[in-house]
């Protein structure tokens, strides 16, 4: 049993979104470590510790709390039906959104470096977003095991 091309593209796009978002985060963390004021412990806390405390609940909660799981699974299914990750336009739109978030992080790093004042932790917000993206990628695999979804995303047998 083979999945439709649309489903394979969608699943691939979900995975690539998590990977690209994570790489952007890693690059911003390296960039921030060399520019943010304070000692190494404070910067590591700002870039790694607090964001981890946001990433974990945003990843785990939608997978273990049934109402959140149903809501996010429905969102993932609607994203597939809307064509996300299946057309060049939707891929470019996704990349533009990720790049916008990346520019925002770099802008915040520059603002903190210039003023020496830490405001809201943009790293924590971005990490929470990565957690939700990763939960969506997991839910794609969960959805494809549901019989009614499977019937819609598999190629008819010849």
UniProtKB/TrEMBL annotation:
Keywords, ordered alphabetically: Membrane, Transmembrane, Transmembrane helix
Species this chain originates from: Phenylobacterium hankyongense
Listed name of the protein: Uncharacterized protein
TM region(s), chain numbering: 48-68, 89-110, 122-143
